[in-house]
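step: validate -> pass
step: tokenize input -> pass
step: predict -> running
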Amino acid sequence: MTARSKIELVEVYIKNMSVIWVQSQRPFNEKWAKQIAAEFDPDKFDPPVITKPNGAGYYHIVEGQHRVASAKIAFGENEKLVCRMVDAQDPARAAEIWLGINSGRKATKPVQEFLVAVTAGRQPETEINTLVRKMDYHISQVKTDYSISAVSSLIWVHRKFGMAMLKATLLMLDKTWPGDPAAFSGELIKGYGSFINEWHPYIDTKRLSEVMVKSGFTPHKLLAAGRLYSEQNITTVMEGIAETLRAKYNYKLREDKSKLRRK
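step: predict -> pass
step: emit ->
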């Protein structure tokens, strides 16, 4: 059986379609739906992707919720739409299909894709999200207290250095600036991750957090120092942050053997 023969097109009333599993795709944007409706062109209307109906007769919209909403605005809920039906019986499968359809699409924001990947049970997103939640933080595009939005950097540290180093990195940032979303910017996560991965057998974590705070370093000041170092030494901001951390850690250490020195 070819892939083409598996495609099932059906006509479904708009009023019978809804996003039942909201965690399985990006949040609804009413402004975007209205814009599509205002510029509605049937020749550009791709069939929405839906599941088979549930017990109440409603079809979950796997992909295309804004197109369905725009058609409702333009024609009313009693209009029928041609849709592509897929066999997704739970949020995880619906999320996996959404990710596959939207892979590489520029409009998908990293946080949205990360959270949908968690719903789909993908790794490393699920493992990272579990760690973040255990720390009483949460993944969010909105930068509020105890939120982290730099998901690409979380994944980068996880893949580059492993889960143990990512955990140590996040715990160190939390110990230094607890709850401050600025402390969990992408460059700081990568900078701390690089520093901790290189020196973790020799670091006194209590000293590291205390020396940064006593030196008057805020997340913004550390990021600025890292950028300055990178400009002066033609290196990355991540490396600039790591070197700034090493310099501050070594400052006023009396015993030479306790200093972080490269051989």
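step: describe -> Residues 1-5 have pLDDT under 50 and may be disordered.
step: cleanup -> pass
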